[in-house]
Specification:
Length: about 475
């Protein structure tokens, strides 16, 4: 291949991005230096996804400039390349090479601070962050950011993960993760395969290569091995595109607040598919968590809804999650609990006020006590086209009224319930199944539905497909 611009094919060329040197402090006071890149064609009011590019202990941050596939993403999203503590401009009082293992583990603090720094940049959509990391700093990336809801995507290049990091990955299977490793790198191959097994079924992939070596140098080895193939097929182009596609996703999510007439400040996540707008309004769903949870139980469901082109308001009604300015849900009187239905109506009104949403195609999903909010709100609001009830609770004093409501609601109902939920709930589910317009999903035993999400990877996609059909 002939060199272009005096450089061999595949060598770094300067991308169309503005680069500026930055510095920030970690939680333990270390000063971290890095380079922030912003695409040159960014509009003034535009907010882009962003990625932290984290080198291994044997590389510097310039490693991400050596391969055009990784350099190219700087033309599409904001990136931050840092020198982790003890390296390059961030050397500080001690070199990384001289650090003990506990000191090296604190690179996780560098990662956390870098994510905070990225989130504060005016060019960045803080709900769409990712990390690409190589080798042993994979553990620091996981420990510093896996639990952060702003970080949605991880790319591991020959990663080495501690058991604690593996455990954390297992708890965050709803995030998108790419595990890229070459077969001859046995320690990383085994480690990455184990990590992938923890999230199998989520939106993640394992790319096993042959003869490409370790870490970012796999990009160079690919070009040496496949001289006749187009550069765009190189592993750095493929992995960079994978990261971009996952970060762009199919919609945006932002936290919103609603003020009720009786003084409650309600928090929720508003999700809007990218394709929706005044000329193409999307159907929408209100998600209602349970008395024992908050909106995070629907994290994977949120992403699946956006992928299906469905907007949502994941609403923490009065007393739930962050919506506790007047007290906790579980200490409310029964009359105060019943008043929570007003919050669902307020959520529907909010969705109707958004010109990206078709207010005539809305649905509600509620769990346990909130499942009845879904049923009663649908009865009271004709614009609600479909509802899903996850293990609805019915009491002896409410049984007759609940059954009358279910029989007369006149909208399709998806009922998800466990066989061990008690006779009243089982009878309620059987009544729902008598209507051919409804759908009943029954799980064995007494595992409540939102906990079943972790045990049955098909349940959430089934719920989304049902709403997609009934809100069409």
């Amino acid at each position: 291949m002939e060199p272009k611009h005096g450089k061999p094919a595949g060598f770094y060329h300067h991308p169309s991005a503005q680069q500026r040197e930055v510095a920030f402090k970690t939680a333990d006071g270390w000063t971290i230096h890095g380079t922030l890149t912003v695409p040159v064609n960014l509009r003034t009011d535009e907010r882009l996804p962003a990625a932290l590019l984290l080198h291994s202990s044997r590389h510097s941050h310039t490693a991400w400039l050596s391969f055009p596939g990784w350099a190219r993403i700087q033309e599409s999203i904001v990136t931050l390349r840092i020198d982790c503590r003890g390296r390059g401009r961030s050397e500080g009082p001690i070199r990384f090479a001289d650090m003990s293992e506990p000191q090296r583990a604190k690179v996780a603090l560098d990662v956390a601070a870098a994510i905070d720094f990225l989130s504060q940049q005016r060019e960045v959509d803080a709900s769409r962050l990712g990390i690409a990391v190589e080798e042993r700093n994979a553990t620091a990336a996981v420990m510093g950011a896996m639990g952060d809801p702003r970080v949605r995507v991880f790319v591991f290049l020959s990663g080495i993960l501690s058991q604690e990091a593996l455990d954390l990955i297992g708890c965050n299977g709803h995030k998108s993760m790419l595990f890229l490793v070459s077969n001859e790198d046995q320690p990383s191959r085994d480690n990455m395969t184990e990590a992938f097994g923890l999230v199998k079924g989520a939106d993640s992939e394992l790319w096993l290569q042959d003869g490409l070596g370790v870490g970012l140098t796999m990009c160079n080895m690919w070009r040496n091995k496949y001289l006749s193939r187009p550069i765009e097929e190189a592993i750095d182009f493929q992995a960079g595109d994978w990261l971009l596609n996952k970060l762009r996703g199919s919609g945006s999510i932002e936290e919103i607040t609603l003020q009720t007439d009786d003084g409650w400040l309600l928090y929720g996540n508003l999700g809007l598919p990218y394709a929706c707008g005044p000329d193409n309004p999307a159907p929408a769903l209100i998600l209602l968590p349970t008395a024992l949870t908050d909106r995070q139980i629907y994290a994977r469901l949120e992403r699946l809804l956006l992928d299906a082109g469905i907007a949502f308001l994941n609403l923490e009604y009065r007393g739930i999650g962050k919506s506790v300015n007047k007290g906790l849900y579980l200490v409310q009187t029964m009359a105060e609990m019943i008043a929570g239905r007003r919050d669902v109506h307020q959520g529907l009104n909010y969705l109707s006020s958004r010109n990206e949403i078709d207010s005539n195609r809305t649905g509600i999903l509620g769990g346990i006590l909130a499942a009845k909010y879904a049923l009663y709100t649908a009865k009271e609001n004709p614009k609600v086209k479909a509802i899903a009830m996850l293990d609805p609770v019915t009491w002896p004093w409410d049984e007759e009224t609940d059954r009358e409501m279910l029989a007369s609601v006149g909208r399709p109902v998806l009922m998800v319930s466990g066989e061990g939920m008690g006779e009243l709930t089982r009878n309620f589910a059987k009544l729902a199944a008598e209507n051919p317009a409804n759908k009943l999903i029954t799980s064995p035993g007494g595992v409540v539905s939102y906990l079943l999400f972790e045990r049955d990877n098909t349940l959430e996609p089934t719920i989304v497909e049902w709403f997609k059909s009934n809100l069409a």
